[in-house]
Task: structure prediction
Amino acid sequence: NDDQAHDDDDDDDNLGNNHGESAGDQLPPEEDDPANKNQPCKNNPLGITRLFLGNLPFAVSEPTLNAHLHDTITHIKWITDKTTGKFYGSAFVEVRNSKDAAKAMKEINGTLLMGRPIKINYAPMRPGEENDWPPKSKVITGGKMANAGGGQAGGKGLKAMSVKPEGCCKLFIGNLSYDIDDEGITKFFMGVDAEIKAVRWLYHRDSGDFKGCGYVDFWNTEACEKAATLNGKNLLGRPIRIDWAE
Result:
């Protein structure tokens, strides 16, 4: 049931809590040995395993990003504004070993992810970060510094989206102003050339009060993808929360 799937979900603070984990390709025994994780290798003489990723799509999710890096990511830290929680379109990631990092730099840097060329750079540890990286949780959020804040994400900021269902033409929209209406949401999505087919607002069964969320149908999956890029954008003074819907 669509309503039940998202009714109580709008105040969930944890980023990526619905994301599945990707096991990735099985490593050869010698590469799977933790002692060999940071071994110097071709194009990575310092054996770095942390990468900084920039120019990421705002609608990117952990499974999508991991798949783009060939299922080599073990930890992700989404970079967000400490005050608003707004996603900056960048992240720190830890990969399985130094060879994975070198391969990402050589083969994946500059490739298109959801229509955007991603930027990848080595992010070597700085003094004092040894206890904070890799983080204890697989997916966390924080400020610009890799060790800022630590721990799990807090606040009501942007949540990474779940995995997009194939051919998806429907979005869940939440954290909406109570002043939103059909005209307002239509104009909002037309800003990225995403024409709405239908809107369904959600209301409390007992009181009839607006829940501040709803569902939007689009004419095709391309329009749906364009609309999803507005996840976290300001709408009537609030960062809209968007996720794929079945």
